[in-house]
Structure formats: C-alpha cells, structure tokens
Design a protein that fits this description.
8 helices, about 55% helix, about 0% strand
Length: about 210
C-alpha cells in the first residue's frame, strides 16, 4: 500500500488498518515496515519513523495519530489559501480593467469646453450638487491627480465618473446647455423624441443669467 498524493494521512491510516484487518495472523513488525514504506519519503511522519523507529505497530499508529493533527491543519490551511488566491484573482480581474471600460457602454454629452472649466463657471449654481467626499486613506492616494468636482485627490477631474454622470443629469434638466454644440443639442432632441421622454425643464440652448 502507498499513501495517495491527494489522500490525507488520516485516510491513509484508516485504509491501512482496514487492509491489515483482512490479513489473518499479520505480523506487527512487517505491518509497521509496510506502513512506513507506504509513506512519501518527504512526509514528516516518514522522517520521524526513520529517526525514532517504533518497535510495535501500536506505537507506530500512536505516532501517526499525532501527526494527523498537523496534517489536518495543513489541509485546512491549504484550502483557505487556495480560496484566498481565487478571490484575489477574481478581484484582480475587476481591478485590472481600466475604469474607462466602464464608460465604453455609456454615451456622454460632448461639451464645447473642458469639464473643469464648466465646473469653474457653474460651481456657485444652486442646482450643482456637491458629491460625497472621496473614500480611502489620503496618504495612499495619488496626490498628483486632483479632482475639482470632489475637491480631493485620487483621479483627474476629466476622468471623474461621478462628475460625468452628474453633468448628464444636469443636461437632462436643461442646465449647462450653453456648453453644448448645436449639433449635440439636436441629437438630444432626437433622442428624447425617440424615447418619448418629456421635454426639458429649460428650453434647449438656454444660457446662464
């Protein structure tokens, strides 16, 4: 008999005892030797039985039972490590995808001036909502990337998803239309007509007072 590569020490002992029980008049020393030879040479128990040989099969089994506790713990730790690696791998897949990919399926309004300039001009307007503060440890953020919308570090203003979506909401309500080209405004009208959406709260092309 030999311990299988995917077999726990506890299961090997149980299988060995079952096989031994089927042998009438099995010699203890022969059984002890067979038990040891069935172990992988890199097994800690094999090393223990070689350095400190047991004279009886009962002593061999007693030593082996102690090693099952260590073997069981290693199996549990290995399974936990594999689960953690799998979870990290799955999370890594999500993190490895650039955030721009999330925008690939979304259509955003094209403005005639950079976003940060729009925010600078409408920052005092009552309809501009302030976003929630950026989460995370400030010491771990990239301080070379500043977002005017969040007024914090971590990403550039033009890459801010929250800002893009909020501007879309503002455009939906008829705000910031002066920063949109006439062609884009016509596309919005056509889109509303296609989707049977209600008219904007403000007329298209309205300017700020």
């Amino acid at each position: 008999m030999h311990k299988k590569s995917d077999e726990s020490l506890r299961d090997y002992i149980k299988r060995f005892k079952a096989e031994r029980a089927n042998i009438v008049g099995c010699d203890g020393q022969i059984a002890s030797s067979a038990f040891k030879r069935g172990l992988p040479i890199e097994c800690e128990l094999y090393r223990e039985l070689t350095i400190s040989p047991r004279q009886t099969l009962i002593e061999v089994f007693a030593t082996a039972e102690r090693y099952t506790l260590w073997d069981d713990d290693q199996i549990v730790a290995k399974k936990a490590d594999q689960a953690n690696k799998q979870a990290s791998k799955e999370n890594g897949k999500h993190r490895s995808q650039p955030q721009e990919c999330a925008l690939a399926t979304e259509s955003y309004t094209k403005f005639t001036i950079p976003i940060h300039q729009i925010l600078a001009q409408v920052k005092d307007m009552p309809w501009l909502k302030k976003p929630s503060p950026l989460k995370g440890n400030l010491t771990e953020k990239d301080t070379s990337r500043y977002c005017r919308f969040h007024e914090g570090y971590g990403h550039y203003t033009n890459d801010c998803f929250a800002r893009k979506r909020h501007l879309e909401d503002l455009v939906r309500d008829g705000h910031c239309m002066e920063f949109i080209s006439r062609g884009a405004i016509q596309q919005i009208k056509d889109c509303d007509a296609t989707n049977n959406e209600p008219p904007r709260k403000k007329p298209y092309g309205s300017t700020r007072s």
